[in-house]
Amino acid sequence: MAEFILRTKKKLEMVDITGRVVDVVKQSGVSDGICLVYVPHATAAVAINENADPNVCEDILEALGTLIPEGRWRHDRIDENAAAHIKATILGPSQAVPVRAGRLRLGTWQSVMLVELDGPRERTVIVEVR
Ligand code: ZN
Question: Which range of residues forms the domain containing residue 111?
């Protein structure tokens, strides 16, 4: 198991971590298996989608904001970040990617991204390859 820490820069942000995950897969020596990418956080998530056009990430964050508006939830009375918790729950804290011939079996347009929903903060990413 490997962990790395990154510092997000914005309140809402998708950070491409594909390269970091690929490094962990290489170091693991696993040829065929599964790679789990997990964040131990209640207001961040892991998503796999396109980052070739960064507008896709902006659109995803905007769509989440439209679906889940801020400032109208019970938890906002004590922490003012209920929307971030709800978005993180919907997206989920992890993604699993098959490993084939020592490589992540991502599609051409897929990247692995940490989704920051209540930044900027320091975030830990845990990568498990088996
Ligand atoms: Zn909270």
Answer: 2-129
In the reported structure, the alpha carbon of residue 114 is separated from the centroid of ligand 1 by a whole-number distance in angstroms of: 18
Q: How far is the CA of 89 from the centre of ligand 1 (A)?
A: 12
Ligand 1 centroid–CA 55 distance in Å is: 28
> Using DSSP, how many helices (H) and how many strands (E) does the chain show?
3, 8
| pLDDT (tens digit per residue) in 43-82 | 999 999 998 898 999 999 999 999 999 999 999 999 999 9
The predicted structure's pLDDT at residue 27: 96
Burial class (CB in 10 A: 0-12, 13-18, 19+), 67: exposed
End-to-end CA distance of the chain: 9
Q: Report the alpha-carbon distance of residue 116 to residue 114 in Å, rounded.
A: 6
CATH code for position 99:
2.60.120.460
Whether the predicted model's global pTM rises above the 0.90 cut: yes
Question: Looking at the 3D structure of the chain, how many domains does it have?
Answer: 1
